[in-house]
Amino acid sequence: MGATRPDPTYGRRVSTPPSIHTLGALRASGHAHRGVKAEIRENLLARLAAGEPSLPGIVGFDETVVPEVERALLAGHDMVLLGERGQGKTRLIRTLVGLLDEWTPVLTGSELNEHPYAPVSVWGHRTVAEHGDDTPVSWLHRDARYGEKLATPDTSVGDLIGDVDPIKVAEGRTLGDPETVHYGLVLRTNRGIFSVNELPDLAERIQVALLNVLEERDVQVRGYQLRLPLDLLLVASANPEDYTSRGRIITPLKDRFGAEVRTHYPLELSDEIELIRQEAALVWDVEGPHAAPVVPDHVLEVVARFTRAVRDAPQVDQRSGVSARFAIAAVETVAASAVRRAAVTGEALAVARVCDLPAVVPASRGKVEFEDADSGRETEVLEHLLRRAVADTFRARLAGQDLSALQSKFDEGLSVETGDLVPADELLRQVGTFPTLSTLLSRLEPASGPEGAGAVGLAAAAVEFALEGLHLLRRLAKDDVGHGRTVYGN
């Protein structure tokens, strides 16, 4: 959740792996072995020195969360991110992968991604001893060095750390042989980044299994005398309320995390809008003119203000929060309403308008948890907050705008019928021209937008927004005539 800055190399495959396939050739190349945390530290320092974003695509955390994460990484700390749902914790964790080297050498066939210079398993030591400089080497891309587990009550120590592999025992190996161990997810992410999402949901006895991973950097599997010096960055996420409701992070485990970072929802309206614009899927995988519906800036702002109003509403359970997914889904619903209108009426381009906003209420009702006292009033509360968001956006965008020319048309008896199936050209035909239309459009959409059909759609969106604003300021009447249609008049 800092504004998106294009960086095509971050976390992406941009080159082919080196043409080095043996341990001897790797040594001859001058390759140096670094631990994961040293690797991340070095790459992070290089990005900071170059003035590049350390966590691109993370919006609204530039002055708060990102500096804390950077300090934790530079200190070599494992960390836990605490925050309500939908604050971008998982997104932030996955972005850390971009701080790893693009390619790293591993012993070919190693289940633990062992570095050729520093094998950790019995198999790895034996392979290097047998083949020497001819030991086969492969290259692992950073995308494959990230592991993640959503903590659930049924997660076992075997899932995370490992357990006896009965198939290997059945093949004739004896119990106690380290090579009969089936490695868990944490071990298979050796030399990478491992994330445990919703950590408090892990049973306390399972959390105990992570104590050695975080401090001693080794593991224990049943009765095996097994020491595997792990090299990884462990990051966990949790909701603050989980400490006392669904579960808790046991004290010894909290103590072993080097850093605790609190996340938050966007503090500024501009960040909320930027997050919606970045994350909403508004380019559809369809053929034809409706593949990319247009959501005007003022409609995005209404949704952002609506989200923040819901988040702050006393009727809403503040402990559960209102996820960023609420706003993203709302904008996608508004765009879908515009596409539906365009498909039914034959509009050349789908442009979202105020009449598409009411569709957000029923679609988003399930994303908000209300206080018990307001049970049954969910729709009423959301509709009120949506109207308030439109009014606030109208005041912010059109304060001081002269709408007397538009108002005078209604004083002379004009009435305008609109709705989610009324096309843009029909709405504009009813309103007709007035002298300040271009000024109104430039105030709402400074970046003019597309020409032709797009201009018609944006003009209709601007006019309808002005009509709704005048209604909310009690300067126009508005009647619901059914079937999703309303009439503005005096």
UniProtKB/TrEMBL annotation:
Signal peptide range: none
GO molecular function, one term: magnesium chelatase activity
Annotated coiled-coil segments of the chain: none
Keywords: Ligase
EC number in record: 6.6.1.1
Sigma-54 factor interaction domain sequence ranges: 182-240
Alphabetical list of Pfam families matching this protein: Sigma54_activat
Domain of life: Bacteria
GO BP: any one term: regulation of DNA-templated transcription
Family matches, as InterPro entries: P-loop_NTPase (IPR027417), Sigma_54_int (IPR002078)
PANTHER family the record matches: PROTEIN KINASE PRKA (PTHR30267), PROTEIN PRKA (PTHR30267:SF2)
Protein name in UniProt: Magnesium chelatase, subunit ChlI
Protein source organism: uncultured Mycobacteriales bacterium
